[in-house]
Write a structure and sequence with these properties.
The chain is α/β, with parallel strands linked by helices and about 210 residues long. It has one domain: Alpha/Beta hydrolase fold, catalytic domain (Rossmann fold), CATH 3.40.50. The chain contains 5 helices and 8 strands; from the N terminus they run E-E-E-H-E-H-E-H-E-E-H-E-H. It has an 8-stranded mixed beta sheet with strand order 1-2-4-3-5-6-7-8, sandwiched between helices. Helix 2 (about 85-100) packs across helix 3 (about 110-125). It starts with 5 loop residues before the first strand and ends with a helix.
């Protein structure tokens, strides 16, 4: 993403996990670590996805070290696709090795939002997640975990109005029982073509407000 981006290799249950670490913008020490999960591996999703990179840039600009990684079977990450279960293990392995303690943020896009919700479900009781960001949440395709009421203020859910991959209605069906707000980007599609600067600004606004 920039000249200071570092390629790292981590250990996962299925073998090596390929990752990139984007250091926080120059200035005071980093606020903590943000882990970002990419979209569906079987449909071209990687840690270099433009939405994932946009999320990383937002966290970096707000003073966080951002770590994005390839799920098992993608790029140089070993293993094969596991329909979300193994990918949740991958995300937790990345957290354990790059952010074992201290302030933590988790973000995910599409399938990555599903995996992020499942990983966070395992962490809520033992680890504070400072900020939680879900974009294009794949609620029509996977069982997204519900979020504890006391973390709703720390959670940003963003979805495109015209998303034809994951319907906005399905996201509202997931969010409604929780009274969890959803930020809708007018005219936005699943990949936010032409609207990535707006997505970045929404995430930055949320992080700074928190």
């Amino acid at each position: 993403m920039n000249s200071r981006t570092e390629k790292i290799y981590l250990k996962g249950a299925a073998g090596v996990i390929e990752a990139l670490r984007d250091p926080a913008a120059a200035g005071p020490p980093a606020l903590g670590v943000a882990i970002i999960a990419h979209p569906h591996p079987l449909y071209g999703g990687t840690m270099d996805n433009k939405v994932v990179q946009t999320l990383a840039r937002a966290f970096v600009q707000c003073g966080w070290n951002a770590v994005r990684f390839n799920f098992r079977g993608v790029g140089a990450s070993e293993g094969v696709h596991d329909e979300g279960k193994g990918e949740c293990d991958d995300l937790l392995s990345v957290i354990n090795q790059t952010a074992p303690d201290g302030p933590l943020c988790i973000a995910g896009f599409s399938f990555g939002a599903f995996v992020a919700s499942r990983a966070a479900e395992e962490l809520w009781a033992t680890r504070e997640i400072r900020q939680f960001v879900l974009v294009g949440t794949a609620a029509s395709r996977f069982s997204i975990a519900s979020l504890p009421a006391d973390v709703h203020e720390r959670t940003l859910v963003v979805h495109g109005e015209l998303d034809d991959t994951v319907s906005l209605a399905s996201v509202f069906d997931w969010a409604r029982p929780q009274s969890l707000p959803v930020t809708v980007v007018p005219g936005g599609g699943h990949f936010f073509h032409g609207q990535l600067p707006l997505l970045k600004s929404l995430v930055i606004r949320h992080l700074r407000a928190g």
